[in-house]
Amino acid sequence: MEIRFDDRVAIVTGAGTGLGRSHALGLAARGAKLVINDLGAATDGSGRNESAAGAVVHEIRKAGGEAIAHGADVSNEAEVQDMVDKTLSEWGRVDIVVNNAGILRDKSFAKMTMADFRKVVDVHLIGSANVTHACWPVMREQKYGRVVLTSSGSGLYGNFGQSNYGAAKAAMVGLMNVLHLEGARDNIRVNTLAPTATTRMTEDLLPSEAAQLLAPETITPGLLFLVSENAPSRVILGAGGGCFAQTRIYETEGIELASGEITAEEVAASFAEISDPDEQAELHDAFSQTRKYARKAAEARGMN
Ligand code: NAD
């Protein structure tokens, strides 16, 4: 079935260029009304150019779509609230939030200043929380919402020199896990995109053959699926060059050390068994883990 966004209102952050621009154009081409947010910052987050979002708004309007620009800094709660207020006064609803704005301040942890660490966390994590938080009551009231957080292989798997970025990007998964649970009863679905694309953020890092294959437009179809009417929820979708894969978090079944005193030596001696992937499973929430441990402890002590 064709995926359409007619009558849906979407906010895409950092949509003046790169992946955000591609996502915004993809949504607009399928009928969504767009808020093009962009601070117009350099890749390291410095500077500001209020006209950064204007070109994309122009592109959408020229193609017959509807769009407005907003230059909010996503890390600034008051500016974000102003953006959401303007969205509501223009169209009266917000159905889709694509948290995409991002910056880099790479350095090995030994050389990184805490100011650079905090700045990256502020834009990615606090920025995503600000925008989603401002739209949350609207989505709850509407009983409809689709939220995407943008993670990265750096956050999921690590990348040398990106402790700030990797931590902020891994935090997207934590935010998604909780918002998925809290949003479910109001038909709010929350997913995470982990893209690899050629943009100004990565053009110097990727070998040229790979760079040609990894255009942002190869990723946007995955994003469109994650914010569609029949979207899944709590999915981490990796995407790049037309390749799509899902990252999942499993816990091994584990073991119970029930023989009297529980010692570090026993943990060390049992580590292979603790790590055995047979019967590993995804857990529904934090209490599923607590219940599992309590059950195993009780069984091992003959209490069941
Ligand atoms: P990009 O630099 O091309 O675009 C980022 C946009 O965000 C810019 O237009 C910038 O002005 C805007 N921005 C920065 N700070 C902002 C702020 N505080 N408020 C509002 N807008 C702000 O980068 P991109 O490659 O398109 O990255 C988009 C997202 O995808 C980022 O979150 C990035 O971390 C993530 N990502 C990208 C890649 C990749 O390979 N390009 C890989 C993994 C994750």
UniProtKB/TrEMBL annotation:
It comes from the Bacteria. Coiled coil: none annotated. Residues 8-196 form the Ketoreductase domain. The keyword Chloroplast does not apply. The keyword Cytoplasm does not apply. Belongs to the short-chain dehydrogenases/reductases (SDR) family. SMART domains: PKS_KR. This is SDR family NAD(P)-dependent oxidoreductase. Keywords: Oxidoreductase. Pfam families: adh_short. It comes from Lutimaribacter marinistellae.
